[in-house]
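Tutorial handout. Part one gives the primary structure; part two gives the three-dimensional structure as C-alpha coordinates.
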Amino acid sequence: MKKLLFLLILSAFAFPGFSQKVKQVVIISVDGFRPDFYLDTAWHTVTMHSLMRQGTYAKGVNSVFPSMTYPSHTTIVTGVQPLQHGVYYNAMFESTGSTGRIYWNDSSIKTPTLWTAAQKKGLKTAALFWPVSADAPVAYNIPDIGSMGEAIRAQYSKPAGFIDEVKTNVFSSAAKIEYGKNINIARIAAYVIEKGRPNLMAVHFFAVDHAEHMQGRNGEMVKEAVADADSGIAIIIDALKKAGIWETTVLLVVGDHGFVDVKTTVSPNVWLKEAGLANDVKKDDWKAQFNSVGGSSYLYLKNHDQQTLDAVKKILAQLPESKRKLFAVMDRKKLNQIGANPEVALALTGLNGAAFNNAFTGEDIKPGHGGTHGYFPDFREIQTGFIAYGPGITKGGVIPEMNLRDIAPAVAKILGLDLPSAKGRIPAVLFSGR
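Part two.
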Protein backbone atom coordinates (compact mmCIF):
# COMPACT_ATOMS: atom_id res chain seq x y z
CA MET A 1 0.00 0.00 0.00
CA LYS A 2 2.80 2.40 0.92
CA LYS A 3 4.62 1.53 -2.30
CA LEU A 4 1.47 2.24 -4.34
CA LEU A 5 0.98 5.58 -2.59
CA PHE A 6 4.60 6.50 -3.28
CA LEU A 7 4.20 5.70 -7.00
CA LEU A 8 1.03 7.79 -7.20
CA ILE A 9 2.75 10.79 -5.61
CA LEU A 10 5.77 10.37 -7.88
CA SER A 11 3.59 10.22 -10.98
CA ALA A 12 1.71 13.33 -9.89
CA PHE A 13 4.92 15.32 -9.64
CA ALA A 14 6.23 13.93 -12.91
CA PHE A 15 2.99 14.62 -14.84
CA PRO A 16 3.03 14.74 -17.74
CA GLY A 17 6.63 13.57 -17.75
CA PHE A 18 8.26 16.94 -18.31
CA SER A 19 10.58 16.80 -15.31
CA GLN A 20 12.00 13.54 -16.65
CA LYS A 21 12.14 14.18 -20.39
CA VAL A 22 12.19 17.90 -21.18
CA LYS A 23 15.29 19.92 -20.45
CA GLN A 24 14.84 22.72 -22.99
CA VAL A 25 12.08 24.92 -24.37
CA VAL A 26 12.68 26.95 -27.53
CA ILE A 27 10.15 29.66 -28.41
CA ILE A 28 10.31 30.95 -31.98
CA SER A 29 8.15 33.99 -32.60
CA VAL A 30 7.31 34.84 -36.19
CA ASP A 31 6.22 38.48 -36.19
CA GLY A 32 2.96 38.76 -38.13
CA PHE A 33 2.42 34.98 -37.86
CA ARG A 34 -1.00 33.92 -39.17
CA PRO A 35 -2.70 30.53 -38.75
CA ASP A 36 -3.11 30.17 -42.51
CA PHE A 37 0.68 29.92 -42.84
CA TYR A 38 0.36 26.34 -41.57
CA LEU A 39 -3.35 25.61 -42.09
CA ASP A 40 -3.19 26.39 -45.83
CA THR A 41 -0.80 24.21 -47.85
CA ALA A 42 -0.55 26.95 -50.47
CA TRP A 43 2.09 28.64 -48.29
CA HIS A 44 4.56 25.74 -48.79
CA THR A 45 5.75 25.83 -45.19
CA VAL A 46 7.15 22.31 -45.03
CA THR A 47 8.62 22.59 -41.53
CA MET A 48 5.55 24.19 -39.98
CA HIS A 49 3.27 21.57 -41.52
CA SER A 50 5.47 18.76 -40.23
CA LEU A 51 5.45 20.19 -36.71
CA MET A 52 1.68 20.71 -36.66
CA ARG A 53 1.01 17.15 -37.86
CA GLN A 54 3.26 15.65 -35.22
CA GLY A 55 2.34 18.04 -32.42
CA THR A 56 -0.48 20.39 -31.37
CA TYR A 57 -1.61 23.52 -33.16
CA ALA A 58 -4.17 26.29 -32.66
CA LYS A 59 -6.71 27.34 -35.25
CA GLY A 60 -6.42 30.88 -33.87
CA VAL A 61 -4.72 32.80 -31.06
CA ASN A 62 -6.18 36.05 -29.72
CA SER A 63 -3.68 38.88 -29.35
CA VAL A 64 -3.73 41.82 -26.91
CA PHE A 65 -4.92 45.40 -27.44
CA PRO A 66 -3.31 46.98 -29.26
CA SER A 67 -2.28 43.93 -31.26
CA MET A 68 1.25 45.25 -31.64
CA THR A 69 4.67 43.61 -31.43
CA TYR A 70 6.02 44.84 -28.10
CA PRO A 71 2.95 44.47 -25.85
CA SER A 72 2.21 41.10 -27.46
CA HIS A 73 5.69 39.69 -26.93
CA THR A 74 5.67 40.92 -23.35
CA THR A 75 2.39 39.07 -22.76
CA ILE A 76 3.97 35.90 -24.20
CA VAL A 77 6.72 35.92 -21.53
CA THR A 78 4.57 37.16 -18.61
CA GLY A 79 1.16 35.57 -19.07
CA VAL A 80 -0.65 38.85 -18.34
CA GLN A 81 -2.25 41.64 -20.37
CA PRO A 82 -0.65 45.08 -21.00
CA LEU A 83 -2.63 46.65 -18.14
CA GLN A 84 -0.61 44.45 -15.77
CA HIS A 85 2.81 44.21 -17.45
CA GLY A 86 3.01 47.91 -18.36
CA VAL A 87 4.12 47.73 -22.01
CA TYR A 88 1.17 49.50 -23.63
CA TYR A 89 2.45 50.08 -27.17
CA ASN A 90 5.65 49.64 -29.16
CA ALA A 91 6.59 53.20 -28.17
CA MET A 92 5.70 55.45 -25.26
CA PHE A 93 3.28 58.34 -25.72
CA GLU A 94 4.76 61.80 -26.35
CA SER A 95 2.45 64.78 -25.93
CA THR A 96 4.30 66.74 -28.64
CA GLY A 97 2.79 64.77 -31.49
CA SER A 98 6.07 62.95 -32.19
CA THR A 99 6.89 59.27 -31.82
CA GLY A 100 8.11 58.45 -28.33
CA ARG A 101 10.86 56.13 -27.14
CA ILE A 102 10.20 52.45 -27.71
CA TYR A 103 9.78 50.07 -24.81
CA TRP A 104 13.11 48.30 -25.15
CA ASN A 105 14.48 47.67 -21.65
CA ASP A 106 13.44 44.78 -19.42
CA SER A 107 12.90 47.27 -16.57
CA SER A 108 9.76 48.49 -18.40
CA ILE A 109 8.03 45.23 -17.49
CA LYS A 110 6.14 45.47 -14.20
CA THR A 111 5.41 41.77 -13.63
CA PRO A 112 7.59 38.63 -13.38
CA THR A 113 8.75 37.06 -16.63
CA LEU A 114 9.78 33.59 -17.71
CA TRP A 115 13.37 34.91 -17.56
CA THR A 116 13.13 35.76 -13.87
CA ALA A 117 11.39 32.47 -13.06
CA ALA A 118 14.07 30.49 -14.93
CA GLN A 119 16.83 32.45 -13.22
CA LYS A 120 15.42 31.56 -9.79
CA LYS A 121 15.55 27.89 -10.74
CA GLY A 122 19.15 28.21 -11.93
CA LEU A 123 18.38 27.57 -15.61
CA LYS A 124 20.38 28.99 -18.49
CA THR A 125 18.40 31.33 -20.77
CA ALA A 126 18.74 33.19 -24.07
CA ALA A 127 16.74 35.93 -25.81
CA LEU A 128 17.55 36.83 -29.41
CA PHE A 129 15.94 39.98 -30.85
CA TRP A 130 13.08 39.57 -28.38
CA PRO A 131 11.25 42.87 -27.76
CA VAL A 132 11.71 44.53 -24.35
CA SER A 133 14.61 42.24 -23.41
CA ALA A 134 17.59 44.59 -23.02
CA ASP A 135 19.16 44.02 -19.60
CA ALA A 136 16.96 40.96 -19.03
CA PRO A 137 18.44 38.32 -16.70
CA VAL A 138 19.55 36.00 -19.53
CA ALA A 139 22.95 34.52 -20.38
CA TYR A 140 22.76 35.17 -24.13
CA ASN A 141 21.04 38.29 -25.42
CA ILE A 142 20.89 40.35 -28.58
CA PRO A 143 17.99 42.71 -27.85
CA ASP A 144 15.44 44.25 -30.19
CA ILE A 145 16.18 47.96 -29.85
CA GLY A 146 14.20 49.34 -32.79
CA SER A 147 15.99 52.19 -34.56
CA MET A 148 18.27 53.11 -31.65
CA GLY A 149 21.36 51.99 -33.53
CA GLU A 150 23.81 49.11 -33.60
CA ALA A 151 26.05 50.67 -30.96
CA ILE A 152 23.22 50.38 -28.43
CA ARG A 153 22.45 46.82 -29.52
CA ALA A 154 26.10 45.84 -29.10
CA GLN A 155 26.29 47.58 -25.71
CA TYR A 156 23.36 45.61 -24.32
CA SER A 157 24.17 42.25 -25.88
CA LYS A 158 25.35 39.41 -23.64
CA PRO A 159 27.93 38.16 -23.02
CA ALA A 160 30.13 41.22 -23.59
CA GLY A 161 31.30 41.43 -27.18
CA PHE A 162 28.78 38.81 -28.28
CA ILE A 163 27.83 40.49 -31.58
CA ASP A 164 31.49 40.67 -32.63
CA GLU A 165 31.84 37.02 -31.66
CA VAL A 166 28.84 36.13 -33.82
CA LYS A 167 30.15 38.15 -36.77
CA THR A 168 33.43 36.25 -36.57
CA ASN A 169 32.21 32.73 -35.89
CA VAL A 170 28.87 32.65 -37.73
CA PHE A 171 29.20 35.16 -40.57
CA SER A 172 32.88 34.80 -41.54
CA SER A 173 33.94 38.13 -40.01
CA ALA A 174 31.28 40.09 -41.87
CA ALA A 175 31.21 43.82 -41.20
CA LYS A 176 27.42 43.79 -40.86
CA ILE A 177 24.74 41.20 -40.16
CA GLU A 178 21.50 41.43 -42.15
CA TYR A 179 19.03 40.84 -39.33
CA GLY A 180 16.09 41.30 -41.70
CA LYS A 181 16.66 37.75 -42.96
CA ASN A 182 15.07 35.18 -40.67
CA ILE A 183 17.66 32.58 -41.60
CA ASN A 184 20.44 34.84 -40.28
CA ILE A 185 18.74 35.14 -36.91
CA ALA A 186 18.25 31.36 -37.00
CA ARG A 187 21.98 30.88 -37.63
CA ILE A 188 22.73 32.97 -34.54
CA ALA A 189 20.27 30.85 -32.54
CA ALA A 190 21.98 27.71 -33.85
CA TYR A 191 25.32 29.06 -32.65
CA VAL A 192 23.89 29.73 -29.17
CA ILE A 193 22.45 26.20 -29.05
CA GLU A 194 25.81 24.70 -29.98
CA LYS A 195 27.73 26.93 -27.59
CA GLY A 196 25.47 27.16 -24.53
CA ARG A 197 22.54 24.71 -24.81
CA PRO A 198 20.17 27.07 -22.95
CA ASN A 199 17.21 25.58 -21.10
CA LEU A 200 14.95 28.40 -22.27
CA MET A 201 15.52 30.29 -25.50
CA ALA A 202 13.23 32.83 -27.18
CA VAL A 203 13.92 33.90 -30.76
CA HIS A 204 12.14 36.66 -32.70
CA PHE A 205 11.89 36.57 -36.52
CA PHE A 206 10.56 39.88 -37.90
CA ALA A 207 10.89 39.77 -41.70
CA VAL A 208 7.31 38.55 -42.26
CA ASP A 209 5.91 41.58 -40.43
CA HIS A 210 7.90 43.95 -42.64
CA ALA A 211 6.70 42.23 -45.81
CA GLU A 212 3.05 42.35 -44.73
CA HIS A 213 3.33 46.05 -43.91
CA MET A 214 4.61 46.61 -47.45
CA GLN A 215 2.24 44.35 -49.38
CA GLY A 216 -0.63 43.40 -47.08
CA ARG A 217 -1.64 39.83 -46.34
CA ASN A 218 -0.40 38.47 -49.68
CA GLY A 219 2.24 39.19 -52.28
CA GLU A 220 5.55 37.76 -53.46
CA MET A 221 7.51 39.56 -50.74
CA VAL A 222 5.25 38.03 -48.08
CA LYS A 223 5.58 34.54 -49.58
CA GLU A 224 9.37 34.87 -49.60
CA ALA A 225 9.46 36.05 -45.98
CA VAL A 226 7.19 33.21 -44.81
CA ALA A 227 9.36 30.67 -46.63
CA ASP A 228 12.42 32.29 -45.06
CA ALA A 229 10.85 31.92 -41.60
CA ASP A 230 10.07 28.26 -42.29
CA SER A 231 13.68 27.70 -43.31
CA GLY A 232 14.83 29.48 -40.15
CA ILE A 233 12.78 27.11 -38.00
CA ALA A 234 14.39 24.16 -39.82
CA ILE A 235 17.87 25.57 -39.11
CA ILE A 236 17.10 25.74 -35.39
CA ILE A 237 15.70 22.20 -35.38
CA ASP A 238 18.87 20.93 -37.11
CA ALA A 239 20.98 22.70 -34.49
CA LEU A 240 19.03 21.02 -31.69
CA LYS A 241 19.56 17.65 -33.34
CA LYS A 242 23.30 18.22 -33.84
CA ALA A 243 23.59 19.27 -30.19
CA GLY A 244 21.93 15.99 -29.18
CA ILE A 245 19.07 17.72 -27.35
CA TRP A 246 16.19 17.53 -29.87
CA GLU A 247 14.61 14.59 -28.05
CA THR A 248 14.53 16.58 -24.78
CA THR A 249 13.25 19.84 -26.28
CA VAL A 250 9.76 21.30 -26.60
CA LEU A 251 9.60 23.66 -29.57
CA LEU A 252 6.93 26.37 -29.74
CA VAL A 253 6.29 28.40 -32.89
CA VAL A 254 4.22 31.42 -31.87
CA GLY A 255 3.22 34.85 -33.15
CA ASP A 256 2.11 38.23 -31.90
CA HIS A 257 -0.70 39.36 -34.24
CA GLY A 258 -2.27 38.82 -37.64
CA PHE A 259 -2.61 41.39 -40.42
CA VAL A 260 -5.26 43.43 -42.22
CA ASP A 261 -5.10 44.90 -45.72
CA VAL A 262 -5.37 48.69 -45.42
CA LYS A 263 -7.89 50.34 -47.72
CA THR A 264 -8.27 53.69 -45.93
CA THR A 265 -6.24 55.85 -43.56
CA VAL A 266 -7.98 58.05 -40.98
CA SER A 267 -6.50 61.11 -39.22
CA PRO A 268 -8.70 61.65 -36.13
CA ASN A 269 -6.52 64.48 -34.81
CA VAL A 270 -7.73 66.58 -37.75
CA TRP A 271 -11.22 66.48 -36.18
CA LEU A 272 -9.83 67.58 -32.81
CA LYS A 273 -7.80 70.40 -34.31
CA GLU A 274 -10.81 71.69 -36.25
CA ALA A 275 -12.77 71.75 -32.97
CA GLY A 276 -10.02 73.69 -31.16
CA LEU A 277 -9.07 70.79 -28.87
CA ALA A 278 -5.59 70.33 -30.35
CA ASN A 279 -4.40 73.75 -31.49
CA ASP A 280 -0.60 73.31 -31.31
CA VAL A 281 0.56 70.22 -29.44
CA LYS A 282 4.23 71.13 -29.86
CA LYS A 283 3.57 74.27 -27.81
CA ASP A 284 1.49 72.34 -25.31
CA ASP A 285 -1.68 74.08 -26.52
CA TRP A 286 -4.02 71.09 -26.55
CA LYS A 287 -6.79 69.51 -24.52
CA ALA A 288 -7.09 66.20 -26.33
CA GLN A 289 -5.16 64.23 -28.92
CA PHE A 290 -5.21 60.79 -30.47
CA ASN A 291 -2.10 58.63 -30.50
CA SER A 292 -2.40 56.21 -33.40
CA VAL A 293 -0.74 52.83 -33.81
CA GLY A 294 -1.78 51.20 -37.07
CA GLY A 295 -5.23 49.74 -36.63
CA SER A 296 -6.05 51.61 -33.43
CA SER A 297 -5.96 55.14 -32.01
CA TYR A 298 -5.93 56.16 -28.35
CA LEU A 299 -7.41 59.31 -26.86
CA TYR A 300 -5.27 61.18 -24.34
CA LEU A 301 -6.75 64.05 -22.31
CA LYS A 302 -4.33 66.67 -21.03
CA ASN A 303 -6.33 67.39 -17.86
CA HIS A 304 -8.35 64.16 -17.70
CA ASP A 305 -11.55 66.20 -17.58
CA GLN A 306 -15.02 64.89 -18.36
CA GLN A 307 -16.00 68.01 -20.31
CA THR A 308 -13.29 67.45 -22.92
CA LEU A 309 -14.11 63.75 -23.12
CA ASP A 310 -17.76 64.56 -23.74
CA ALA A 311 -16.75 67.01 -26.47
CA VAL A 312 -14.68 64.34 -28.21
CA LYS A 313 -17.50 61.80 -27.98
CA LYS A 314 -19.85 64.34 -29.54
CA ILE A 315 -17.42 64.98 -32.41
CA LEU A 316 -17.21 61.25 -33.13
CA ALA A 317 -20.97 60.72 -32.88
CA GLN A 318 -21.74 63.59 -35.28
CA LEU A 319 -19.46 62.40 -38.07
CA PRO A 320 -21.25 61.33 -41.25
CA GLU A 321 -21.94 57.62 -41.62
CA SER A 322 -19.30 57.35 -44.38
CA LYS A 323 -16.67 58.16 -41.73
CA ARG A 324 -18.24 56.50 -38.67
CA LYS A 325 -18.27 53.13 -40.45
CA LEU A 326 -14.46 53.22 -40.47
CA PHE A 327 -14.05 52.72 -36.74
CA ALA A 328 -15.59 51.47 -33.51
CA VAL A 329 -15.21 53.21 -30.16
CA MET A 330 -13.75 51.23 -27.26
CA ASP A 331 -14.76 52.94 -24.03
CA ARG A 332 -12.90 52.65 -20.75
CA LYS A 333 -15.01 49.68 -19.64
CA LYS A 334 -14.04 47.67 -22.71
CA LEU A 335 -10.40 48.67 -22.32
CA ASN A 336 -10.42 47.48 -18.72
CA GLN A 337 -12.04 44.21 -19.71
CA ILE A 338 -9.25 43.39 -22.16
CA GLY A 339 -6.50 44.74 -19.91
CA ALA A 340 -5.40 47.67 -22.08
CA ASN A 341 -3.57 50.95 -21.41
CA PRO A 342 -4.97 52.62 -18.25
CA GLU A 343 -3.76 56.08 -19.28
CA VAL A 344 -6.28 56.72 -22.06
CA ALA A 345 -9.93 57.79 -22.00
CA LEU A 346 -11.08 55.72 -24.97
CA ALA A 347 -9.76 54.11 -28.12
CA LEU A 348 -10.76 53.69 -31.74
CA THR A 349 -10.26 50.44 -33.61
CA GLY A 350 -10.42 50.38 -37.38
CA LEU A 351 -13.20 48.72 -39.35
CA ASN A 352 -13.58 47.85 -43.04
CA GLY A 353 -9.87 48.03 -43.76
CA ALA A 354 -9.27 51.39 -42.03
CA ALA A 355 -6.06 52.32 -40.22
CA PHE A 356 -4.98 55.51 -38.42
CA ASN A 357 -2.19 58.07 -38.42
CA ASN A 358 -1.21 61.02 -36.23
CA ALA A 359 -1.57 63.89 -38.73
CA PHE A 360 -3.21 67.08 -37.41
CA THR A 361 -3.63 68.78 -40.79
CA GLY A 362 -4.69 67.80 -44.29
CA GLU A 363 -7.48 65.47 -45.35
CA ASP A 364 -8.97 63.37 -42.57
CA ILE A 365 -9.69 60.40 -44.86
CA LYS A 366 -7.26 59.14 -47.50
CA PRO A 367 -6.73 55.97 -49.52
CA GLY A 368 -4.57 53.37 -47.80
CA HIS A 369 -2.13 50.71 -48.94
CA GLY A 370 -0.15 47.77 -47.61
CA GLY A 371 -1.13 46.10 -44.36
CA THR A 372 -1.15 46.75 -40.64
CA HIS A 373 -2.18 45.48 -37.22
CA GLY A 374 -2.97 46.99 -33.81
CA TYR A 375 -6.72 46.35 -34.04
CA PHE A 376 -8.97 45.19 -31.22
CA PRO A 377 -8.40 41.40 -31.25
CA ASP A 378 -11.95 40.19 -31.85
CA PHE A 379 -11.87 39.00 -35.47
CA ARG A 380 -10.20 36.28 -37.50
CA GLU A 381 -7.72 38.27 -39.59
CA ILE A 382 -5.93 39.71 -36.56
CA GLN A 383 -5.49 36.33 -34.84
CA THR A 384 -2.00 34.84 -34.70
CA GLY A 385 -0.80 31.24 -34.63
CA PHE A 386 0.63 28.57 -32.32
CA ILE A 387 2.36 25.22 -32.89
CA ALA A 388 3.88 23.01 -30.17
CA TYR A 389 6.02 19.91 -30.64
CA GLY A 390 8.09 17.73 -28.35
CA PRO A 391 7.96 15.25 -25.46
CA GLY A 392 4.70 15.44 -23.54
CA ILE A 393 2.96 17.47 -26.27
CA THR A 394 -0.18 15.85 -27.69
CA LYS A 395 0.32 14.41 -31.17
CA GLY A 396 -2.49 15.53 -33.46
CA GLY A 397 -3.87 17.97 -30.90
CA VAL A 398 -6.05 20.85 -32.12
CA ILE A 399 -6.80 23.95 -30.03
CA PRO A 400 -9.87 25.74 -31.45
CA GLU A 401 -8.90 29.08 -29.87
CA MET A 402 -6.48 30.33 -27.23
CA ASN A 403 -4.93 33.58 -25.99
CA LEU A 404 -1.36 34.89 -26.00
CA ARG A 405 -1.35 34.93 -22.21
CA ASP A 406 -1.80 31.14 -22.21
CA ILE A 407 1.75 30.54 -23.49
CA ALA A 408 3.72 31.60 -20.39
CA PRO A 409 1.96 29.26 -17.93
CA ALA A 410 2.43 26.41 -20.41
CA VAL A 411 6.18 27.06 -20.60
CA ALA A 412 6.32 27.38 -16.82
CA LYS A 413 4.59 24.01 -16.47
CA ILE A 414 6.97 22.33 -18.91
CA LEU A 415 10.13 23.59 -17.20
CA GLY A 416 8.75 23.43 -13.67
CA LEU A 417 9.00 27.18 -13.15
CA ASP A 418 7.19 29.18 -10.49
CA LEU A 419 5.19 31.91 -12.24
CA PRO A 420 2.01 32.39 -10.17
CA SER A 421 1.41 35.89 -11.56
CA ALA A 422 0.57 34.47 -15.01
CA LYS A 423 -3.18 34.69 -15.67
CA GLY A 424 -3.43 32.54 -18.79
CA ARG A 425 -4.93 29.06 -18.95
CA ILE A 426 -3.07 26.12 -20.42
CA PRO A 427 -5.17 24.63 -23.26
CA ALA A 428 -6.51 21.26 -22.09
CA VAL A 429 -5.44 19.42 -25.23
CA LEU A 430 -1.84 20.66 -25.22
CA PHE A 431 -0.27 18.07 -22.92
CA SER A 432 -0.60 14.35 -23.64
CA GLY A 433 -2.10 12.23 -20.89
CA ARG A 434 -4.12 15.11 -19.57
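Part three, for discussion. The CA atoms of residues 142 and 157 lie 5 Å apart. The chain has a mean pLDDT of 94.
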